[in-house]
């Protein structure tokens, strides 16, 4: 039931602080310990490599997860597109561990990889899904649930945030299991609570984002999201969200890579949305934004408080830098939502798309 909401998507965006809190209360004890099946932790902690498998938005959540896993666990982690990996000829190490990310747990591309994991490679696996009794949950060796509640809108929002929260908890639990300082010293409960509050601030200020959508995106044919590192990962998800519901031709791009060709597409007024939440790369992304401004682009910046400068457009409350995707993505979900609403399209039911994709 969408209650007083015009669309499920807006309801699901608004639910995200509650989703983070629900995940915290399910997986973190009073003392701040993270709870997963002991056998799961034992197996992943001795993996020589972790593969994260997903499609669409779940793949994008995997890109962020890779960086969190490597930081917390020290285990090399690779993220793969299910539809590609299903027919690739990868060199799988003996102690590989597979993590499947799937909101529905029914995506045929991901299942095809799981069939190979079970039959051909005989490796250990975990499915992280919103649907406890789904195919992927049943066919993997382990399963954990996202606790996001049913996601009805075709465009995935709260599942992405829930997936990254779960990846963070799992990475911290594995890192602690292996006595890694980066995980032992990370106050995951405190940091996720900060994230929940920060998302709340973003959704409370949605009318400002609505105005930015109206004056910059509603009347454009194309747009770019750019960023580096984790901001690049979010740029890919932000662009997918915008294109799938508003039909603006949007592209997520590594900001440093633009000048190697794609900058040719920048014309007078082309919207370029810059994500700037990482200290290490903020100045570089700012120079890349200067490059597109000098070609006439209409630049919109999304930055964290710490890195903000005069004239920035959307300022996000401060959270630990590795968790900024959880907050910045919400601003981009709202931009996609309002652009679509203003164009008069059905936000929840975009053309040509279904909620779960059960064909390869
Ligand atoms: C985008 C979207 C899709 C799904 C993809 C994977 O908003 O919803 O890209 O993320 O089809 O679906 P799941 O996570 O159910 O495997």
UniProtKB/TrEMBL annotation:
Major subcellular location class: cytoplasm
Active site location: 355
Domain SIS: 40-180, 213-350
GO cellular component, one term: cytosol
EC category name: transferase
Keywords: Aminotransferase, Cytoplasm, Glutamine amidotransferase, Repeat, Transferase
Compartment list: Cytoplasm
A single GO molecular function term of this UniProt record: glutamine-fructose-6-phosphate transaminase (isomerizing) activity
GO BP of this protein: carbohydrate metabolic process; fructose 6-phosphate metabolic process; protein N-linked glycosylation; UDP-N-acetylglucosamine metabolic process
Superkingdom of the organism of origin: Bacteria
Entry annotated with the keyword DNA repair: no
Keyword flag Secreted: no
Coiled-coil region: none
Listed EC numbers: 2.6.1.16
Catalytic activity: D-fructose 6-phosphate + L-glutamine = D-glucosamine 6-phosphate + L-glutamate
Function (record text): Catalyzes the first step in hexosamine metabolism, converting fructose-6P into glucosamine-6P using glutamine as a nitrogen source.
UniProt subunit comment: Homodimer.
Protein name (Swiss-Prot/TrEMBL): Glutamine--fructose-6-phosphate aminotransferase [isomerizing]
